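User: Predict the structure for this protein chain, please.
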Amino acid sequence: MKRLFGHLYFWVLLSICAGGLLGFISPETGVALKPLGDGFIALVKMLISPVVFCTVVLGIAGAGDLKKAGRIGGKALLYFEVVSTAALGIGLLVMHVLHPGRGFNVDPATLDASAVAKYAAAAAAQSTVEFLLHLIPKTFADAFTASGDLLQVLLLAVLFGTALVRLGRVGGRVHEFIEEASRIFFAMMAFVMKLAPLGAGGAMAFTIGKYGVASLKPLAALMGSFYLTCLLFVLGVLGLICALTGFSIVRFIVYIKAELLTVLGTSSSESALVPLMEKLERAGCSRAVVGLVVPSGYSFNLDGTNIYLTMAALFVAQALNIELTLRQEVTLLLVAMLTSKGASGVTGAGFITLAATLAVVPSVPVAGLALILGIDRFMSEARALTNFIGNGVAAVVIARWEGELDPVLLSEAMTGRQPPSEAKGKAT
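Assistant: Here is the predicted structure, written as C-alpha cells:
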C-alpha cells in the first residue's frame, strides 16, 4: 500500500474520482474549481514550446547527418498519413454501421446558429494560403510568445537544427547549450507534473459541475459510438501495428498508465508530452527518433481528432435526415486529412476544425454543430487519449523501422521486469 501511495498515477486517479464526485454533489463548487485545471494546463503550455524546440533540435543534431534526420522525418510523415487515414476511415465505417444520429429528426430551422457562430467564423477566416503563411512566425520569438502554435515552433526547430548540423564543430557549443537548457526545461516540467492531481481533479470537477451527468443522456448514442470507435482503433489498428512491430498494445498502455491518467483528467495530450518522451527513451527508443517523431506527431498524427471529425460530421447529417452521397463523404474524408493538421495549436481546435470540414458539404448546415456543442467537452478526453497513445506507438514503430530501438529495453519496459529508472539513459 505504501508503494502505491508513492505513485503519481494513484493520486491523479484519486483526484479525478474525487473531482467528479464533488462536481456531481456540489456543481457550484465544481465550477469554482475550474482555475485549478486551467492553471495546470497554462503551466504545461508555458513549457511546451521551448521543450519541443530543444527536443526537435537535439533530435536532428543527434541523428548525426541531415540525410538520417530527413529519412526519419519522411518515414514519420508517411506513417502519420497512413494511420490518420485509417482513423478517418474507421470513424466513417462505424457511423454507417451504428447510425447514432438516426431518429433525432431535427428541423434545421430550429437550430441555434449563434451558438457555433464563433467557431464557423474562425474556420472560415483561415484559407489554405493563410494557413500556410501562418506557419511562418512574424519574428523568431513570436512563435514562443504569441499564439503558441506548435507548427511554428516545429518550423523554427527544423531550420535551427538543420543549420546546427551544417555548421559541424562550429555549432558544438550551441549544441551543448541547448542540451543543458533541455535538461532544465525537463526538470521544470517534472516540478509542474507534481501538480497534476490538483489540475486533473479541478478539471474533472468543473466538467461534471458545469455540464452535469444528465447532459450526457440525450447524446449518449454519439458519445458511446465515439468511445467505442476510439477503443476499436487503439486495440485493433494500433494493436495490429504494435504486434507487427513486436510488442503488445495492452502492455504499452499499462506502461504509460500514469501519463494517460493525467491526459484523462486534463483532456489535453500536451499535459504529459515530456513524461511520454522520457518513457519512450527508457523503453529503448533513441533520442533522435523520439525528438523528431513525438513533437511532430502532436501536429500531424491526431488519430483521435480524425475519428471525431468524421463521426461528428456524419452525426449532424444523420440527425438532420440528410443523406450524403459517396462523393460528399469522400470529400469530407479528404478535407479532414488536411484540416486536422496542426489542430493541437488552435484554441477550440476540435470544433473549429470540424466547422472547417463540414463547410465543404453545403447541404449540411454548419449550425448543426450546435447539436453536439454541449457534449464536445466530454468527447475531448477520448480524443486526447487516442492522440496520445497513437504518438507513443508511432515513436516505437519508427524507431524499430529505423533500427534505433533497443529490443531488450523494450521488452523490459513492457513486461515490467526492470524499473524504468534503472533503464533510463541506456537508449542510444
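The chain has a mean pLDDT of 80.
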